[in-house]
Design brief:
Layout: H1 3-7, E1 16-19, H2 35-38, H3 42-51, E2 55-59, H4 79-90, E3 95-100, E4 106-112, E5 122-123, E6 126-131, E7 134-137, H5 140-148, H6 169-183, H7 193-199, E8 203-204, E9 207-208, H8 210-216, H9 219-225, E10 231-235, E11 246-250, H10 254-265, E12 273-278, E13 281-286, H11 290-303, E14 312-316, E15 320-326, H12 348-356, H13 366-376, E16 391-397, H14 403-415, H15 424-435, H16 443-451, E17 455-458, E18 462-465, H17 467-470, H18 474-477, H19 483-492, H20 500-506, H21 513-523, E19 528-531, E20 538-541
Parallel strand pairs: 1-2, 10-14
Antiparallel strand pairs: 2-4, 3-4, 5-6, 6-7, 8-9, 10-11, 12-13, 14-15, 15-16, 17-18, 19-20
Helix pairs in contact: 6-10, 11-13, 13-15
């Protein structure tokens, strides 16, 4: 960085902010209590400059032209931690440079990228902008113009130069076939393609739109008009492996490409079978289910930002499936409300056709399906924790962590009519009770689950699973213990070894002391492990498997 060049820059025109910051310049508000004063700090100026679509914050130079070097001690010897802390707080990656003049005076230049498309960054809950020499709350007009950036439907835009001859016959055939199956409409198979495209709003008087290109375009035409429309799959033998073992790129129209992507993923090496003890049988299940993976991919395609570069990237291994798409969560969606908020895809026209063809049940339902499937299969729920304002990252783990829960749900599904099945909120509530995570419990589900005896409320320990759940426990199904005893032992011993006293208290008034001791001793070896002697004897549960 040339100090002479910096000295002649104008703050507003060149998107740069100069601060002397000789000593103890505040990083995040300092000791001030007034919000107006707190903004005048490093994070405040970074927020405002990012909202101006990027720029530089220069510390150690005067703010009057020409900008003279005065030197700064801000973050001296701590540049790496500074960049990390800025990312943690604002979710943008800055680049810091240290420059020294001929007298050894230090200047720190913080290079700031643009905010995400359609989102304004905030400092302490407030979107900031620079006005003259001050930092102010962004006015309504400016804020609304930013929000509008992501509102227009990119997929509805006309793709100039695209013609019907540029569309894949294979993809068109598959689209007709799927709509026919979904809608039961025989006409779709025989209508001229022009009429089909008009009916689906893929063709207007101005021409074909980008939705037509993404859904039906030939691979070479997609590369020509939308080169970022790729799905890249990297396979690793282990998720901890740094370099991929195999890589495959797909630049295909959705209607033919989604099947090809799944066929690639559904190879024995990439999607191995897991063996499950579903007494009295041992069954095998795939590491990743087709519906879950297809929903994850289609969800990423619908919600990705085509205005930002970057392919959809899938990293898959025997342990996990991760898919990343450009663009953060849609406006109003966050990690806390992802299951409850009604969101719309960025590419609405694209999503509407996908829905009409039955590739998805309805727009916005993909997250529900992925979470439901993982819970029903006995896996951990998907996580979006690695997402930020620039990308959405979805991680799905293959491991079956709760076979008891899986077997319970399988029998529930088989014994109930469709209208009687548990919904996503019921499933999340059960999952959260088992995980001891109150944040996933939905009040609307508690009454239903208690009425059906799936859960009950313990007077001191809160919500627990009921006897009906423990009837499906492997030990109970094998006749080694009854469901009520298994339930009590599960919760009594979940926090570690306990002495005989805990059992005497649990069955007090129901059984005599001798009966309780005999009951527990009979379970040693099959249900319980015993350690120690005499009064020091403790008991733990035998681990499944």
């Amino acid at each position: 960085m040339d100090l002479q060049h910096l000295a002649n820059l104008r703050e507003k025109e060149d998107h740069v902010e100069f601060k002397e910051a000789k000593r103890n310049y505040p990083f995040a508000g300092g000791q001030h209590s007034d919000p107006k004063d707190r903004r005048h700090c490093v994070l405040g100026y970074i927020t405002a400059l990012a909202n101006e679509k990027g720029g530089r914050l220069v510390l150690g130079m005067s703010d009057k032209l020409p900008h003279l070097v005065v030197g700064t001690d801000f973050a001296q010897g701590n540049i790496g931690n500074l960049e990390d802390e800025i990312y943690k707080r604002l979710h943008i990656r800055v680049h810091c440079e240290e420059v020294f003049d001929e007298n050894g005076l230090r200047v720190l230049v913080i290079n700031i990228p643009s905010r995400p498309v359609g989102k304004a960054l905030r400092f302490e809950g407030v979107p900031l902008m620079r006005v003259g020499e001050s930092l102010r709350v962004m006015d309504d007009q400016e804020y609304f113009s930013i929000l509008q950036e992501q509102d227009p439907d990119f997929s509805a835009r006309i793709c100039k130069g695209l013609t019907i001859s540029d569309l894949s016959e294979e993809a068109i055939y598959r689209m007709r076939e799927l709509i026919h199956i979904k809608r039961g409409n025989d006409n779709i198979l025989n209508l001229p393609i022009e009429q089909v495209l008009i009916d689906l709003e893929l063709l207007t008087s101005e021409g074909l739109n980008y939705a037509a290109l993404i859904l039906l375009g030939k691979p070479e035409i997609i590369r020509k008009y939308l080169p970022q429309n790729n799905v890249v799959i990297e396979y690793r033998v282990s998720e901890n492996q740094i370099r991929y073992s195999a890589k495959q790129e797909f630049c295909e129209p959705i209607f033919s490409g989604i099947d090809k992507i799944w066929q690639y993923i559904n190879q024995d090496a990439i999607n191995p079978r897991l063996h499950v003890d579903s007494y009295p049988q041992i069954i095998s299940v795939a590491s990743y289910s087709e519906e879950t993976i297809r929903e994850a991919i289609l969800n990423a395609i619908q919600h990705r930002s085509f205005q930002m570069g970057g392919d959809i990237l899938i990293k898959i291994s025997p342990e996990s499936f991760e898919i990343t798409n450009s663009g953060g969560f849609p406006f109003g969606v966050n990690l806390g409300n992802i299951l409850t908020v009604n969101s719309s895809p960025r590419s609405r026209r694209l999503a509407e056709v996908i829905e009409k063809a039955g590739l998805i049940e309805r727009s916005g339902q993909g997250v529900d399906i992925m979470f439901s499937n993982c819970i029903l299969e006995g896996r951990n729920i998907p996580t979006y924790e690695a997402s930020d304002d620039f990308q959405v990252n979805l991680r799905i783990e293959s491991k079956l962590v709760n076979l008891h829960l899986r077997n319970f749900f399988q029998e529930i599904i088989q014994s109930r009519l469709p209208k009687e099945q548990l919904n996503i909120f019921d499933l999340m509530t059960i999952y959260s009770i088992l995980k001891k995570d109150g944040s996933g419990i939905f009040e609307r589900s508690l009454n239903r689950l208690m009425q059906e005896n799936i859960i009950y409320k313990h007077p001191t320990l809160g919500y627990q699973m009921g006897n009906i759940f423990f009837e499906h426990h492997p030990k109970v199904k094998k006749g080694l213990v009854d469901a009520d005893t298994m339930r009590r032992l599960y919760y009594l011993l979940e926090n570690g070894p306990k002495s005989m006293g805990i059992f005497l208290e649990e069955w007090k008034g129901e059984l005599t002391i001798k009966q309780i001791r005999n009951k527990i001793e009979k379970l040693v070896g099959t249900i319980l492990l015993q350690a120690g002697r005499g009064r020091g004897t403790t008991y733990t549960l035998v681990k499944e498997g």
